[in-house]
């Protein structure tokens, strides 16, 4: 059996091509040294929150961008903080697993929201009401057509 002929090489400048591939894979991560990483005391009774919401969001952003499980995300964030020479502790698995309080409240009320994408954890009547109140469209695994959750389907929307 004969081999198919090799396609002709169209790249004339291999060093530039190699550098372009390296730049395509590069990533710059910056942490603001003035960022409040540890949570401020809430003044309530009971155990205080250890990390600020911004710290948890920073970790979860890396999780989404790098498509990592939570436990691997803690390792990546720990490495990044060490590279940045920041003495901050990394939130643990259970801290990152907790849902953040009402993500729509973090966006100023006068700022327009075009659409909201979320997973099933936010597929509740309260979430849909908050999204509708802000005039945004809901998209996502379960926020889209809402065909599989008839109890959460808006009045008048046809079922499956």
UniProtKB/TrEMBL annotation:
Which residues belong to any copy of the Transposase DDE domain?
22-109
Q: Which InterPro entries match?
A: Tnp_DDE_dom (IPR025668)
Q: What is this protein called?
A: ISSpo9, transposase
């Amino acid at each position: 059996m004969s081999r198919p002929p090799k396609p002709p090489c169209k790249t004339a400048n291999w060093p530039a091509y190699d550098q372009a591939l390296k730049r395509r894979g590069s990533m710059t991560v910056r942490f603001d040294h003035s960022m409040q990483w540890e949570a401020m005391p809430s003044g309530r009774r009971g155990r205080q929150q250890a990390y600020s919401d911004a710290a948890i969001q920073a970790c979860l952003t890396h999780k989404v961008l790098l498509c990592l499980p939570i436990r691997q995300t803690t390792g990546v964030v720990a490495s990044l903080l060490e590279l940045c020479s920041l003495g901050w502790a990394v939130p643990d698995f259970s801290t990152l697993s907790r849902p953040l309080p009402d993500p729509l409240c973090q966006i100023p009320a006068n700022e327009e929201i075009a659409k909201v994408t979320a997973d099933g954890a936010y597929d509740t009547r309260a979430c849909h009401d908050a999204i509708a109140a802000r005039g945004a469209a809901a998209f996502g695994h379960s926020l889209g057509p809402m065909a599989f959750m008839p109890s959460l389907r808006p009045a008048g929307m046809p079922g499956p």
